[in-house]
User: Fold this.
Amino acid sequence: MEGLLVESSHSGQAVELLANTLQLGQCNTQEFPFKARQTHTPDYIRQFPHLRARTQSFSSLLRLRDTATALIHTFFRDNGFINVHTPILTSSDCEGAGELFSVKPCREEGDVEEDEEGEFFGCKAYLTVSGQLHAEAIACGMKSVYTFGPTFRAERSHSSRHLSEFYMIEAEKVFLSSELEPLLNLVEDLYKYTVEGLLREREEDMTFYHEQSQSTKEWVMKSLSRPFLRMTYSEAVNALRAANANFQFEPKWGSDLKSEHERYLTHHVGHCPLFVTDYPVTLKPFYARQNSDGETVSGMDLLLPGVGEAVGGSIREEREESLQAALTRCGMLESYQWYMDLRRFGTVPHGGFGLGFERLLQAVLGVKHIRDVTPFPRFLGSCDM
Ligand code: 4AD
Ligand code: MG
Assistant:
């Protein structure tokens, strides 16, 4: 990788920084936060969001983000999907997938207008937590579609895998049966196409990250050479209960898998990507298609080593009566009449998923904190720049 030459205003000598662009002008190396030929920790580098593109780790990351984005678009295009732009401003909370940021006008800069009644749009408006329902509306009129855009969640979490703003790839595939298999294959193919492409087109940048995490390199290489593991939620809970591990939260059928459970599963069940399928009805949103056992739905998560859940998806409930019952159960029937129309006026069996772009990068690069795989991280307590 080429070095960046920055002239020191003090010594007049050129110092090397590890990025690969050339810059003009003086740089006071005493004040400049990154020192030549020194290793800086991610925690330190993260304090300078406006300057970190000049470090090797971050310029590598930005090239990888760019290439991964292009590969994902090519994958969908080659597989017959069309790209749609779903809205960022929305009046729908998509199943309550996450906590919402509300959007209100400002009268003047900094002066947030009271807009409780939503007079600007005539209804309350939010930043999108998922483009899924909009993508479904389009898929039901056209064919398989995907969207790849910014997504916002107001979770009050400081965890290493949560951002308030992240990018999500959401696909809706039409003419799926009630079987999950083709949907799982689609996710697996997308992962493999993207990661193989990164290793081929960005070998040097991938090596830079993998040299810092040999175990990541090992599982990533393994993940490309064999099928992903698949187990049902019930099997996962049984494996956890038999694990004899000191979990903070006891694994129980009907309870969400916590991140400690996901970590255990990916680590101990093959150290490889793992699909968990057929979750209890209560753990997946109203649109997930109910299985014939009446207790589980045709839904799935993909767990990746290091980060846990990177994908969530399901076959969508296409049966009008079942959907109506599910919406009634969660008290959303009235506001989701437009979603009922997608079945009421004829439908197409379909299913889809959402892949967290940052979580994918975090996992395959072996980056500990999600804030280090996005240029300008937004999270509880921070919206710098
Ligand atoms: O599992 P989630 O909530 O699923 C949905 O939103 C569905 N509507 C997707 C669909 O079927 N079209 O979110 C999908 C993925 C998660 O698996 C995770 O990778 C990522 O989005 N994600 C986050 N990434 C970073 N920060 C957060 N706060 C995230 N919340 C979810
Ligand atoms: Mg999820």
The CA atoms of residues 98 and 364 lie 25 Å apart. The radius of gyration is 23 Å.
